[in-house]
TrEMBL record:
SMART domains: FBOX
InterPro entries recorded: F-box-like_dom_sf, F-box_AtFBL13-like, F-box_dom, F-box_SCFL_complex_component, LRR_dom_sf, LRR_FXL15/At3g58940/PEG3-like
Species annotation: Rhynchospora tenuis
Gene3D superfamilies (UniProt xref): 1.20.1280.50, Ribonuclease Inhibitor
Protein origin, superkingdom: Eukaryota
Every F-box domain range: 8-58
Name by which UniProt lists this protein: F-box domain-containing protein
Length: 410
């Protein structure tokens, strides 16, 4: 019997909720194109709650500063993108928008695009905006006021185009009543912005600063629960005071130990701190030594990675000796040369009465140099000690009343 083909359009017969869910995974330009499929699809794209716009759909090329024709073409493509986004947003109707994302990179160094599209997106009162922001290197970046006054916004991600350097983020005012999470990438931030941000975001719980230059002297908040400062330059004294902060991550930052002060972190549970020096270390040699490890004394899980910079060991020893890590359950310490800092481990244990797990990251080429007599300590509270070398586990020992880490390794 000859089989007949089934040409029934089963997809179009699906409920609106299902079709809208499927379209939300598409780039918005592709979602709009489905309007030509049939009458059933003509207006479906207008009720999709997740909008994804991509600069790559309207490509611009890197051009020579002297090539006027190419610059005009770049401006033309930018206007196409702006026109498309605004047209989509204007023709959506009254349906709710949850998320608006702008991805891709604006590639011209010589023509700065309009941000009318970002303004129009904020007027839709979404809960989430994630945007790659185009701007000239070291220019002042003023985003539309509608973005920083969007009352419905709960998550905001602003990523400055890394191909054109960093830009100074400047705002006249900030009033984000519902904002809980903010991520800023590749920007220059100063005290004025920080002050407006912390005052204008009364429920901000999660602040992420990535690859930024920070001229910020104070991050004080009674609502912040998680703070991430990653791969940033700290260019002046910074005080962090957040009494309900639960998680703190300061990773791959420059000038950290000499320039940062941690205070009032009474609710801290998780902390990862990477202390990194720089070629310009002498610039901050005259700065006063500030509270650092003392501010971590309430942590339950603590991970430290540090280089053996001049005077760093002495400062850390003094700070550890000044307090007790009364909640510390897990301690993970790593360094480029653990031999010079092994006494710090003993000191930590002496001031950590409830410590259960200890992890040490060692360089394999210095393991034989470790003088066990210099790092002897009681291990009566510790249940597990893990020794890592070159990211591989070298040893794992349960406590058998050994008195030194040197004994454990051997």
């Amino acid at each position: 019997m000859k089989r007949t083909s089934d040409r029934t359009d089963r997809i179009s017969s699906l409920p609106d909720d299902v079709l809208v869910h499927v379209l939300s995974f598409l780039n918005t330009r592709d979602a709009v194109r489905t309007c030509v499929l049939s009458k059933r699809w003509r207006n479906t794209w207008t009720i999709v709650p997740i909008l994804n716009f991509d600069f790559y759909e309207f490509p611009t090329e890197l051009v020579s500063e002297d090539d006027d024709d190419d610059i005009k073409e770049n401006i033309k493509e930018d206007l196409k993108f702006d026109s498309f986004v605004c047209s989509v947003l204007e023709n959506r109707g009254p349906s709710h928008v949850d998320t608006v994302t702008f991805t891709g990179e604006f590639m011209s160094h010589f023509c700065e695009p309009s941000m009318r599209w970002l303004h129009r997106a904020a007027l839709l009162m979404p809960q989430v905006i994630s945007a790659m922001i185009p701007c000239f290197e070291l220019a002042e970046l003023h985003l539309p006021d509608s973005v920083f006054s969007c009352a419905s916004l709960e998550l905001l991600e602003l990523i400055h185009n890394p191909y054109v350097g960093k830009a100074y983020l400047k705002q006249n005012s900030i009033a984000l009543a519902s904002l809980k999470t903010l991520m800023l990438v590749n920007l220059v931030l100063d005290d004025d912005f920080a002050r407006k941000l912390l005052l204008g975001c009364p429920v901000l719980e999660d602040l992420q600063l990535l690859d930024c230059e920070l001229f910020m002297s104070d991050i004080s908040s009674n609502v912040l629960k998680r703070l991430i400062i990653h791969d940033c330059w700290l260019l002046q004294h910074m005080r962090i005071s957040c009494p309900i902060l639960v998680s703190l991550f300061i990773i791959s930052c420059k000038n950290t130990i000499r320039i940062i002060s941690l205070e009032n972190l009474t609710s801290l549970v998780y902390a990862t701190i990477e202390l990194v020096g720089s070629d310009e270390e002498e610039v901050v040699d005259t700065l006063p030594k500030l509270k650092f490890l003392c501010g971590l004394s309430n942590a339950t899980y603590l991970k430290l990675l540090f280089r053996p910079l001049p005077e760093l060991k002495e400062q850390l020893e003094n700070e550890i000796s000044c307090g007790t890590f009364c909640n510390l359950n897990c301690l993970d310490i790593g360094a480029w040369n653990m031999v010079k800092h092994f006494s710090l481990v003993a000191l930590f244990l002496e001031h950590s009465p409830v410590l259960k797990q200890l992890a040490l990251s060692l360089n394999r080429d210095v393991i034989q140099e470790m003088p066990g007599r210099d790092v002897s300590f009681q291990l009566e509270y510790i249940e597990t000690v893990n020794i890592f070398s070159d990211e591989k586990k070298l040893a794992r020992r349960r406590n058998h009343k050994r008195r030194s880490v040197g004994e454990i390794i051997k």
